[in-house]
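Handout, section B. The chain below has 272 residues.
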Amino acid sequence: MLCVGAAVTGQAPRTEFEAASVKPSGPLPPIEQRAAMPVRNGPEYLFLPRLALAQMVMTAYGLDAYQVAIPEALKNEHYDVTARAAHGSTPEQVKRMWQSLLADRFHLEFHRESRTMAVWELTVAKDGLKMVDSSRANDARAAPLAEQKEGGPLWLAPGKPGLRSYTRVEDGVTVAAGRHIGLSELVFFLEKSLRAPGAMKGMVDSTGLTGTYDFGIQFVAPNDQDRPNSKGADAPDIFAAVEQYLGLRIQSVKRPAEVLVVDRADRVPEEN
C-alpha cells in the first residue's frame, strides 16, 4: 500500500483471505458471558470478537499501540471478525490479508509520519548485567540472588519440553522466570508489564545485548500498585526490580518514532 492505500511499486502481490466476515459488534455482553466468548486465532482460521480498528491495523502492519493514531470518532467502534486463510499461509502472508481486508471493507486511508514521543528505553545498569548468559552454564553470575538459585522461587527448572518462561501474579506481585530468552522477548514482556491506562508507551532496546539469557524477577506492576495485598509491600516496583534482578535500567526518554495515522475509515464495513 501507498500511504493512501493504493498499490506501491515493488510491494509483495496482493493477498486475500479465502473467506472473511466483518460485522459491527453488538452491545458489550454481561461480564459473566465474556469469558465464554469463543476466540480462535490460528494460522488458517480465526474468529476474533470485539476487535477495535486500531487492533486490526496493528495486526496488519506489525505495529504497537503507540504507533497507530485513530480518529476519535472511530476509537470506540468494535467488530467481530471471522476469516479463513489458505492452508500453509505464512505469518507475512496473513498480515497482507489483513491489509487487503482493511482496504476492501473499511476503505482505509492512512499516511505515516514521524512523531517525537516518550518511550521507555532499556539499557544496561551502571553496576553491570545480572542476567545469566544462557551459553555459559558456569557463569559466575549464575545466581546473584538467593531466590534465583536452583530450587528458589525465581528459578525455572530445565527439562520441561517447550517451557522457556512463565509468568504468574500472586497477591498483586508479578513473578516471572525465563531460560534462553532473547532481548526482543524480554522487551515485549517488560513493555506489556509497564502499560497502565492512559500511559501507552513503547520500549526501545539500547542494551546492545545479542545473546539469550536466564533470569528471574518479581515486582509490583503499575496496575497493581494501588491494590491492597499482603505480599506487595515487600516487592519492589518494576523499575527497581529490573535493576536489582536483571542488571538493566528502564527510563523514560523522548525519541522520534514512525506512526501510522489513519486519515479515513468507514465506521460500518462494506458488506461481506
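Note. Residues 19-113+260-264 form one domain. Compare this with the example in section A.
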